[in-house]
Amino acid sequence: MAKKRPQTKAKRPQPAGGAGADGAIPVVGGREPCPCGSGRRYKACHGREAAHAVTELVRRPFEGLPGECDWVALRELVPAATVELTLKDGLPEDVPSVTLATVLPMAWPALRRDDGSVLLGLQNDTASGDISRDLADTLQRALVAEPGTPVQGRRAPADGPRLQELIDSEGPFEPVVHSGFEFWVPDAENATPEVAASLERANAAAIPTVRLSGVDAAYWCETPEKNHLRWVMPHPEERLLDALARLHAAGRSSLGEGTRLVGSFRAHGLTVPVWDLPSGVGAQDVEKPAAEFAERLAAALAVEEPLTAEERRARGGLTNRQVTLS
């Protein structure tokens, strides 16, 4: 390992014109002298703290938001979906609506439409370890952008708000899954050539997906060889794996004939069990089995006894088939 260069600790006086009256250090260029008066460059002084705050990984960025499990699904699993967002302070006068979208044309982080409405893209690379803060920064900039313009990505300020501070925690969160991305533009037939090409590519890659209505955050999808059910669950990972192992060892983890619990994803601090389904099994076919499984799972989650040897083997198999998405 490379040796760490020792850092000298300089005194940080607060001269007039340096830190503000509230003690905040203004942001300047990384090579400029730090405004705190230490005599060091900003990037080696307070800029180091700011960079760390921005890049530190937030394990559950959507925790505390309405529909946390659906936020994870829309970020990682669902090709085309939208959700109307309710803001804590209401909408600005010239913004008729704010809509969360899985993906936007040209991979834009956000778009202020001609009518003033805002589309916020969820499936974008972010500059920091806190997706919530980056999305909140994009949303705030979109609310004041000129109508008819996209909003580009940037690194959010370390002290900027998070989505949890902007979105009404009591508001509804009701995803609408689409078969394609025509929701991008009011009139898809008259879209610009660039947007039309992006729309065509996105539609060609979209996997047919349906959100189940009887349970929360469960998404059926169709692939050429077999179908799947991917179900984002809010329970603590270790407790959930124990419960799934109990059901698996008892032969009660399937969703009906020909279906099989094959493993799980980890995504944004939550666990996503995955079932393989025969190609002829559609979303409606698993509505009732999924609701019945939810009841079995609730009972298994309530069990306090240690796992049996057979249940431990089942748990080991499930753990070995976990894939971390984020």
Summarize it:
The protein has 326 residues and is of the alpha+beta class. It has helices spanning 46-55, 68-76, 131-143, 163-166, 193-205, 237-249, 283-301, 309-320; strands at residues 81-84, 98-101, 110-112, 118-121, 149-151, 176-177, 209-211, 218-222, 227-231, 260-267, 270-277, 322-324. It is built from eight helices and twelve strands.
How would you sum up this structure, described in words?
This protein has 326 residues and is of the alpha+beta class. 29% of the residues lie in helices and 16% in strands. The protein has helices at 46-55, 68-76, 131-143, 163-166, 193-205, 237-249, 283-301, 309-320, and strands at 81-84, 98-101, 110-112, 118-121, 149-151, 176-177, 209-211, 218-222, 227-231, 260-267, 270-277, 322-324. The strands form two sheets. It has a six-stranded mixed beta sheet, covered by helices on one side. It has a six-stranded mixed beta sheet with strand order 7-8-9-11-10-12. The longest helix has 19 residues, at 283-301. The radius of gyration is 24 Å and the shape is globular.
Task: Give the DSSP E fraction (strand runs of 2 or more residues).
Answer: 15-25%
Structural class: alpha+beta
Helix count equals 8
The main pleated sheet reads as: 6 strands, mixed
Shape: globular
Order of helices and strands: HHEEEEHEHEHEEEHEEHHE
Which strand order do you get reading across the main beta sheet?
A: 5-3-4-2-1-6
Extract low-pLDDT stretches.
1-24
Kindly report the average pLDDT value. Answer: 88
Number of strands: 12
Estimated radius of gyration: 24 Å
N-to-C terminal Cα separation, in Å?
26 Å
Helix percent band: 25-40%
